[in-house]
Amino acid sequence: MNAEGRRELFDSSVILPHSSFFLCDLCVSVVKAFDTTIHPMQLSDLVQADDIILGVRAHDVAGAAAEILGKTLPRHGFAPDAVRRLIDAVIAREREMPTTCGASAIPHARDAAVKSFVAAIGTNGGGIIEGQREPRVIIAFLSPLEKHGEHLQLLAALSRLAHDTPAMNAIAEAKTAEDAIALLKR
Known about the structure:
By secondary structure, the protein is an alpha/beta fold. The protein has helices spanning 3-9, 12-15, 20-34, 43-46, 61-72, 80-96, 148-162, 165-173, 177-184; strands spanning 52-54, 100-101, 104-105, 108-111, 118-123, 137-144. Strands 1, 2, 3, 4, 5 and 6 form a 6-stranded mixed β-sheet that branches.
């Protein structure tokens, strides 16, 4: 399959009718099939302790993503107007196709204003969404628009992490942001 065919495969109009679990499995399969020579980006390389927010509580995944990105993006040099626009892009993408994968959710977007990957993590051992046990970990990220392949690699790596129940449980129950980072580096 050529690059155009891969882009069409990930066009939201093709994936939209399927569940988020299909998205997670599809990302893993496509990255394995087409990008086996590229080393996957690690989440632990993208987040610092200040990018991990413990005890996040929101009405929905989009609200939780807005909360954690609202704290992380200014520390990465984004002006208030850019922060709002980028958060709106993540919220729109999440509402178009929810990213909940088991005990976690992976809201994300790509944008031309983003020059390097930015990620933030929100956790709550009792569940992030009010009245629900899951998701307990939300990993929100933004990718540079031109880094489509790397975006898919990161999404696939996060999907694999999301399906690692012991890892997700440990991250959700981490007492400090530093503990969460140590868990990510295992």
